[in-house]
């Protein structure tokens, strides 16, 4: 299989230096106003309020859209206010892009019903962004109830007589549907993320109320027709022939949850970008400020095409970079709720005794220590001594102590639900809202605006951190606090509530506590959590199974399975390091009690390791085989860097994850090529995709099968890859002198080498593996080996091919290698 050649497509990055660089704000003619930056032109009709957006080569990418606000008055009548008959000024907020075109639009006169709308747009000079934000002021004399903000709205929404047939106002112009791909995602950690073709259906769950609240933002169903897609927070529509695309979304979810909707079944292709304001009450004299809507025109030839948007969102949310490496162990996938002090101490004892072999950093106690879901004191029948005691033992083993909590849900039968029914989120009939199904029951959501709930959150957090001594807090099922419902404070959207709850927990726990978000709407956690679960739960089967049965769940996009976890980890890998450390969920390595075969476990381990994020195992360590312990050791410490994904937007091409590495042994490329299909796949890739030229001669070491090949020419054969399999290559240009080709020490294939000095007929290397155990290294040596020694002791040399040799070594934390040849 070949990859496209770079020269076949329009490359926006190349155009940046040849297109006109004029910018400014001007009247094109009587009824059109334009803001022109170096990259984009925003055209506004002041009388009718519609707007269009073009890129610098003249193509229109959004046409005849409107900004609108839908709301209800005190009598319950629904109204839609648009920016009609606007006055335009060039004043703007200084907090984003001081260099650029700032426009503020205000209706003249103020809306007859008393709603005062002011919309601000920014077209920065240095990047192809267009940003839109609206302030909604209530001057009606009575409260109003806000329902919806449309940034890319419906062109005839201003005509009430046409409300039943009104159409969206955005259009992605000039693209053949056969060339279109759409990256979309659901609203929280466990929701689907992936790239779809124009004629496909958006994946959805068939489990109804069992999983609906977990998967559907605000209870809205997913589209069912071919070619109709959604994406929460942000999505990307790309043309794989031009190799460029439009990202549309929001910079934050501080004020409300936003959604991109796309209909590729129509011509022109229709898109909407809007926020659900959930009917929040806006009293007379007060204002509501939406989040920034964002349109970004991206060149997919860039190594990280989403990077400018992700960086801007991070800066807007106030992300503080945290570079901690996290590797450890979690109790959930091996023991579930069946945990006890004795069982935890058994695993902890093994970790303490085997630290030199497997140097993990974290010991996390998951669900099962507490009295009930909602009652977060410890269960004395399972943990008779205070949890502070086991925390001291964790610390004595030089490990970070972690604990799990789901602070925004409660189970029927819990003390919380019996004694505090007023703490629960209610529906319009004042009945408690079911937030999903788990633990054999429909659990309920808490109202995060209730003063007593806030105090309980402080109490639970303080007990876990200050009293028990944990410094790693995993917060689960967070979406429940953001569900639609009747709240104690009816001026808060679900996004506001969840942001407030996470801020409260962060302030209570302190900056020194590591917070993990899980089951969390992504935008709500930016800047507040240190790591974020980016996938559904993993499981011991490739596809979904419930008690051994696949009916209804095997293709469910959010049901626990290895495949769902791998897919989301791949498609959310670009978030790592920008917003948080990615948490791809746990690695399962065991052979007993699971349906995953060896190939699938390798694929899971490779995706977790090369996605760059957190590495946490969840197997009974005391019974894990020596080989599988070695596999875990090979992916720790985590690489903790973001990969390059050159085939990310085209599902017709094999998924590729790259890391361009540099270290003491020179430069090399770590490349994982995946086969997600259910049948074998014979794959080849264009060398340019992997960062090489056709005239390069390259050593290729496959890290799992431990074979050495040579690649050259334009197309490189990756070989027949089994179903659900992966080929893991370390690629190095052939050079004179001794070369490190690969190893079984660490998946990075060379980062463990801290020194490498090649002289005539000799090489001296320093290996810092940070662990003990047996390992192998593969070298290319330009001559007949005379001697090889590790720490002064001679070691055996196995000839593999021509000048390639394999050395078996015994690792300690630091080793000195010497190889001599004639």
Q: Rounded to an integer, what's the Rg over CA atoms?
A: 28 Å
Number of strands: 51
Tally of alpha and pi helices: 13
Distance between the termini: 42 Å
Mean pLDDT across every amino acid position: 90
Stretches where pLDDT is under 50 for at least 5 consecutive residues are 1-22, 156-169
How much of the sequence is in beta strands?
35-45%
Structural class: alpha+beta
> What oligomeric state best describes the polypeptide chains here?
single chain
Please summarize what this structure is.
The protein is built from 13 helices and 51 strands. The chain is α+β, with helices and mostly antiparallel strands and 822 residues long.
Report what the structure shows.
By secondary structure, the chain is an alpha+beta fold. Helices cover 15% and strands 36% of the residues. The protein contains 13 helices and 51 strands. Strands 8, 9, 10, 11, 14, 15, 17, 18, 21 and 22 form a ten-stranded antiparallel sheet that branches. Strands 34-33-32-31-27-24-23-35 form an eight-stranded parallel sheet. Strands 6, 7, 12, 13, 16, 19 and 20 form a seven-stranded antiparallel sheet that branches. It is globular and about 90 Å long. The model is unreliable at 1-22 and 156-169 (pLDDT under 50).
């Amino acid at each position: 299989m070949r990859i496209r050649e770079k020269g076949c497509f329009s490359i926006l990055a190349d155009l940046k230096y040849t297109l006109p660089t004029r910018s400014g704000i001007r009247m094109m003619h009587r009824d059109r106003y334009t803001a022109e930056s170096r990259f984009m032109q925003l055209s506004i009709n002041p009388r009718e309020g519609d707007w269009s957006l073009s890129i610098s080569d003249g193509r229109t990418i959004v046409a005849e859209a409107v900004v609108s606000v839908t709301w209800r008055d005190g009598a319950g009548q629904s109204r839609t206010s648009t920016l009609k008959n606007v006055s335009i000024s060039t004043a703007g907020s200084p907090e984003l892009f001081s260099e650029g075109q700032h426009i503020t639009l205000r209706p003249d006169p103020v809306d007859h019903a008393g709603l005062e709308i002011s919309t601000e747009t920014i077209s920065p000079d240095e990047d192809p962004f267009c940003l839109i934000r609206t302030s909604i002021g209530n001057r009606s004399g009575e409260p109003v109830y806000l329902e919806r903000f449309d940034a890319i709205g419906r062109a005839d929404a201003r005509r009430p007589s046409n409300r039943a047939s009104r159409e969206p106002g955005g259009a992605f112009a000039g693209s053949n549907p056969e060339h279109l791909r759409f990256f979309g995602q659901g609203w929280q950690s466990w929701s689907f993320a992936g790239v779809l073709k124009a004629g496909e259906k958006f994946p959805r769950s068939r489990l109804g109320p069992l999983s609906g609240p977990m998967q559907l933002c605000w209870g809205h169903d997913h589209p069912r027709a071919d070619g109709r897609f959604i994406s929460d927070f942000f999505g990307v529509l790309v043309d794989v022939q031009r190799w460029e695309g439009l990202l549309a979304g929001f910079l934050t979810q501080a004020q409300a949850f936003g959604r991109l909707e796309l209909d590729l079944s129509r011509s022109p292709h229709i898109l909407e970008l809007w926020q659900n304001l959930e009917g929040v009450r806006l009293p007379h004299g007060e204002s509501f400020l939406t989040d920034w809507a964002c349109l970004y025109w991206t060149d997919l030839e860039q190594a990280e095409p989403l990077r400018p948007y992700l960086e801007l969102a991070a800066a807007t949310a106030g992300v503080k970079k945290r570079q901690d490496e996290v590797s450890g162990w979690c109790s959930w996938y091996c023991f579930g709720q069946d945990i006890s002090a004795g069982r935890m101490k058994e695993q902890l004892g093994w970790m303490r005794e085997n630290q030199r072999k497997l140097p993990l950093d974290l010991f996390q106690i998951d669900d099962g220590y507490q009295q009930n879901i909602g009652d977060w004191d410890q269960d004395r029948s399972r943990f008779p001594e205070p949890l502070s005691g086991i925390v001291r033992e964790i610390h004595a083993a030089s490990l970070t102590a972690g604990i799990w909590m789901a602070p925004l849900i409660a189970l029927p039968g819990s003390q919380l639900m019996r004694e505090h029914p007023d703490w629960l989120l209610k529906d319009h009939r004042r009945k408690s809202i079911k937030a999903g199904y788990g633990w054999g029951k429909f659990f309920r959501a808490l109202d995060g605006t209730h003063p007593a709930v806030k105090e309980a959150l402080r109490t639970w957090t303080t007990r876990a951190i200050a009293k028990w001594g944990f410094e790693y807090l995993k917060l689960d099922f967070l979406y429940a606090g953001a569900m639609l419902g009747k709240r104690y404070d009816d001026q808060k959207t679900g996004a506001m509530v969840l942001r407030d709850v996470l801020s409260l927990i962060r302030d209570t726990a302190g900056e020194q506590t590591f917070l993990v978000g899980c089951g969390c709407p992504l935008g709500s956690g930016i800047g507040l959590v240190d790591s974020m679960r980016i996938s559904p739960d993993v499981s011991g089967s490739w596809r979904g199974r419930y008690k051994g049965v696949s009916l209804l769940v095997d293709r469910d996009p959010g049901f626990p399975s290895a495949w769902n976890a791998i897919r989301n980890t791949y498609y959310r890998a670009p978030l790592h390091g920008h917003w948080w450390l990615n948490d791809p969920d746990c690695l399962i390595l065991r052979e007993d009690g699971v349906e995953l075969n060896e190939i699938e476990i390798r694929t899971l381990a490779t995706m977790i390791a090369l996605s760059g994020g957190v590495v946490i195992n969840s197997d009974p360590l005391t019974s894990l085989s020596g080989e599988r312990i070695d596999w875990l050791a090979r992916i720790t410490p985590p690489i903790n860097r973001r990969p390059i994904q050159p085939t990310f937007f085209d599902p017709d091409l094999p998924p590729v994850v790259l890391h361009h590495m540099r270290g003491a042994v020179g430069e090399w490329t770590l490349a994982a090529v995946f086969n997600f299909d259910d049948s074998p796949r014979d794959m080849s890739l264009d060398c340019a995709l992997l960062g090489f030229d056709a005239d390069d001669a390259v050593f290729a070491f496959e890290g799992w099968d431990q074979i050495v090949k040579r690649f050259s020419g334009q197309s490189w054969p990756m070989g027949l890859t089994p179903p659900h399999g992966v080929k893991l290559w370390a690629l190095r240009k052939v050079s004179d002198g001794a070369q490190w080709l690969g190893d079984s020490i660490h998946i990075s294939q060379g980062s463990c080498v801290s020194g490498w000095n090649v002289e005539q007929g000799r090489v001296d290397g320093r290996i810092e593996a940070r662990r003990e155990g047996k390992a192998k290294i593969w070298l290319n040596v330009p001559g007949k080996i005379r001697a090889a020694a590790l720490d002064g002791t001679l070691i055996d040399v196995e000839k593999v091919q021509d000048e390639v040799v394999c050395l078996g070594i015994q690792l300690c934390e630091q080793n000195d290698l010497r190889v001599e040849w004639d």
